[in-house]
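tool_call: predict_structure(chain=1)
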Amino acid sequence: MMGVRIFYRGGIIDHRALEESIYTKASLLMDVRPWGSISTSITYSFSRSALTIPVDVARLLLCAIMSDTVNFTSPTTTLADRYIVPLFCSFCGYVIK
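tool_result:
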């Protein structure tokens, strides 16, 4: 495509504390949230950008949240994690018992 420029902007998205010393030569996007799963943060980013999550991606994110939070038994599980899972289950056609 003529006249189209694509820029890569690096960044960090994480759900844990970062090292105290992070140095970059250029500005850096950072999104660090104290949630139990990085998948919850990714879901939040999709939602904030008004992007639709494909069903196959939603299934992967759902599995990752359940794994990261050890089925909600981990002390790092947050309300954000617990809020996202039923939404994904409904979206993917799963029944919660």
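agent: Strands lie at 11-14, 29-32. Proceeding to next step.
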